[in-house]
Structure formats: structure tokens, C-alpha cells
Amino acid sequence: MAEESLELDGLLEACDVMIELGQTQEALIALGRLRDQYPDAPEVCLLLGDCYYEQGDLQKALDSYMEASFLDSDWVEPHASMAFCLIEMGRLKGAWEEVKEALKLDENCATAHHCKAILLEFKGRHTAAQKEFTIAHKLDPERFFVPVRATKEEFDSVVQSVIQSLPSKFRELLKRIQVIVKPLPEPKDNPDEPFSPLALGAFDGFSIRDPGAEMAPCSTIYLYQKNIERVCRTKEDLVREIQVTLIHEVGHFFGLEEEDLQRLRLD
After folding, report:
1. Do residues 87 and 71 touch, judged by C-beta distance below 8 A?
2. Confidence band, pLDDT 50/70/90 cuts, at residue 137
């Protein structure tokens, strides 16, 4: 039994490395075989969920996390993973329930504290959120950090500096786009796309490739300050992330799809 457990651990570690290297399809095949071989192993289901999450298939990720929780109801990790997945899906009420369950099972679960911080931000409780980010960082400093913070004026100033640093042709086109900084996303910002509470930015309007674009109303780029800050450790990171996010959304104005932006490394 011990040898079998060691073998499974080694195979799961290999799959985890594949996911980190972006080899998610290969990892899915390997994990599918492992699930057939070890049908009662919640660790396989959890990693399968991580793999689906990396592929952007949030529903399959959630289903896999739920299966892991069913196989081991006292294991905290599936609940914490479900919480993060539900936040990404915009199901904040369900995410709260999973955070509560995770912290009930283990009050030192760093992922649960990180998710709680995000949820508190959406409630406007920013001081409490910052406290939870700090707890998550102390519990797992390699995975989580305390987000860099800027005032609204500082953030707006960086945005304007980034715009001024763009090539003149870009700046000329930006005259046809209004750039709005908001604390966090709202579904109404981009009604034609699925709502993602963790989005760094959004584009709402017409691309220059659309028929009648010349007569179309002004398009809008939204930049979400709290979400951008959350992925930045330093002010230098903040400037870089604003630049990448802004150019990414300008790319949509040019009619580029997400796949095009990924190829250009503007994702």
C-alpha cells in the first residue's frame, strides 16, 4: 500500500510539472489514466481540476474539484480551489460558502484567506481585504503576496504616462477611445462577454474592422485598479501591468481576438 501511494505521488508530481510547463493536454491524458487506475484518489481529481482551470474550462475544473471533495469531505484543498474557481465564474455567493467551509476545516488555509480577501474587495471592505491578503502571504509567501497599492490619482497618473509612451499612431487612435479606470469589474462593462470578476481590463465597443466603424460611437477601455494591483508586487510591476493590459485592450479595438493577443504575448 505504501509503495502504491509513493508511485501515485510520483505520477501526480510529473503531471503537475506538465501543467506548469503548459503541457495541459498531455497532463489531461495522463490524469485520465490515473483516475481509471486510482478511482478513489481525490488528489487525482484535484489536479485534474487544476489542469482544466489552466485550459480555461472552468465548469470542468469545478466538477473535478467537487468530485475531489466528495471523495474526501475533510480535505480543505478542494473547497479552497472551488472558491477560487467560483470567483472566476462570477458566482461570488457560492465562493463565500466554499471559503467558509475551507476555513472551518483549516483556519490556516492560505488559498481560502486569499479568496476571502478578493470577496471582501467586492463588498467594498478594502481594509479587511488587505488584512486577509497579508494573512495569506504569511501562510504561503511563495504563492501569495500582499498587492501593491496606489491612490486613484497615482494610478490615473501611471495610465496617462503609459498612454504618452505609446507610439504616436497608437495615441492618435486612442483619441477615439475613452479609457476609464474603475476599482473592480461589473457585468454591464462588457455585456457581450462572460463576466469575469478577476479581469484586469475590458473593451466595449466597435473595432476598426467592423462595418460602419467610422460612424460608430466612441469605444471604451476599462482598467480595473484593484485587480491589476492584486497581480503586482511592486510599483514597477504596476506600471508594466497597466501597459500590457492597456495595449491588450487596444488590440481588441484593432479587431484582434484573444488567440491573436496570446501569440503576440499581450495576454
Report:
1. no
2. very high
In the chain, pLDDT over 70 holds for what percent of residues?
87
Cα 91–chain centre separation:
14
Would you kindly state where each structural domain of the chain is located, as residue ranges? 2-139, 152-263
Q: Which tens digit of pLDDT belongs to each residue from 36-83?
A: 999 999 999 999 999 999 999 999 999 999 999 999 999 999 999 999
Max distance between CA atoms of the chain, in angstroms, equals: 70
The reply to whether 152-263 shares the fold of 2-139 is no
Domain 2-139 belongs to what topology?
1.25.40
Average pLDDT over residues 230-246: 90
Residues 65 and 29: their CA atoms lie apart, in Å, by: 18
Tell me the percentage of the chain whose pLDDT exceeds 90. Answer: 61
Q: Do the Cβ atoms of 40 and 20 come closer than 8 Å?
A: no
What CATH number is given for 152-263 in this structure? 3.30.2010.20
Question: DSSP of 88-119, one letter per residue?
Answer: HTT-HHHHHHHHHHHHHH-TT-HHHHHHHHHH
What pTM, to 2 d.p., does this model score? 0.85
